[in-house]
Known about the structure:
- The protein is α/β, with parallel strands linked by helices.
- The chain is about 50% helix and about 10% strand.
- Strands 1-4-5-6-7 form a 5-stranded mixed beta sheet, sandwiched between helices. The protein has a two-stranded antiparallel sheet with strand order 2-3.
Amino acid sequence: MSQASDILIWQSFGRSARRSECHLRNSSASLSSRSIDPRQEDIGAVKPDQRFVGQSKEFWAHVRTISQEVGYVVKARTSNKSTRQPREPAPVKVPSIQEVTDALGLLNLNSDHVVNAHTKQLTSFGDALLAYFGYRAEVLNTSVASHLMTVSDARQTFLEHYQLLSPECYIPMNRQRGDKKTPQFFTGIINMLVEANAAELPVDYNPGALTTVTRDNVPVRTLSRRVDGAFTSTVNPIAIWEVKEYYYTTTFGSRVADGVYETLLDGMELEELRTIRQIDVQHLLMVDDHFTWWICGRSYLCRIIDMLHMGYIDEVLFGSEVLQRLPTIVNEWVARVRANPALVRSKPRTVEQARSQTKTRAEVNRWVETALQHPEQVADESEVRETPEDDGTDGDSNVDIVGELNRGDE
């Protein structure tokens, strides 16, 4: 990308890092292991830690069972229910050896394979388990927390890139009304970055069909769900991606939780394709909104990190991480196509799709013009948050925000 684009990347990242600096100092203080400073480390996407790649299904069964029993975040020691004033969200939890054995014992499960009953020392399996809990907490409490953007951050970053890149790609509008109706900022940023680095190769920014993989022009697998983007096509793609942006929610509702499980389904289908047919399709997940994911949904961030290491996602990009990492990823796709032009596939848009995208582009252009000329008419973040549609009460999906912050346990 150009020098001007690089400047935008660092400006946008700087806003996110400064916003989270105070919280990072507090949340990382309880970690005994080395902390990650996002201003000093590479700010690329979260990739699997090779120590935990290839672990058995039994290992991940332990991770889920123990996490469920001991909790995903540190419990608050005191309550603030009298004032109902929210405090800083508690950090992601690293369970102690005693908590792990107690959790298994409460479920009438054996723990001798985790902690030696005679020496009281961790077994090799237990050592790997505790190391993973430590890694998961560290990466979420430090690197991930600092990259998730607020809607204000995302709006500013979107406008900067829209002015710089003059995109031709599809950028969807959200489904809100009135002042709340805006472009989907995070999706728009992603699509603009992909377009700017795709070397004019085909990209499906709005797949209207299921992803299909073929051999000898015969379908061998078709995924159950439509994804949010595909390079170069939904037929035999090099890569597919899913975007989870929830800037206007007040609870971590079932719609948000279901999005995590949808990604899990896609990942399991792609794992089966890779294992049985030796066909590899890169699977990216990109999520954003500091409020929804960090304030309300830290337990689901833990689940995302778990899925990453279980092999169901190749990379996860959190918020402003897309600014630096996504161009590199797209350049890798382009290099693969140049090495093998037969990989290029494209599907012509229908007349209906073309009309719809033309209408949407006009809406985006009008919104951008208004936002630049009359910024006071753009709704403030505090004015636009609302409960997501189909908000459910299943399990820990629906969280009362102030109560959750005071309880500190998801």
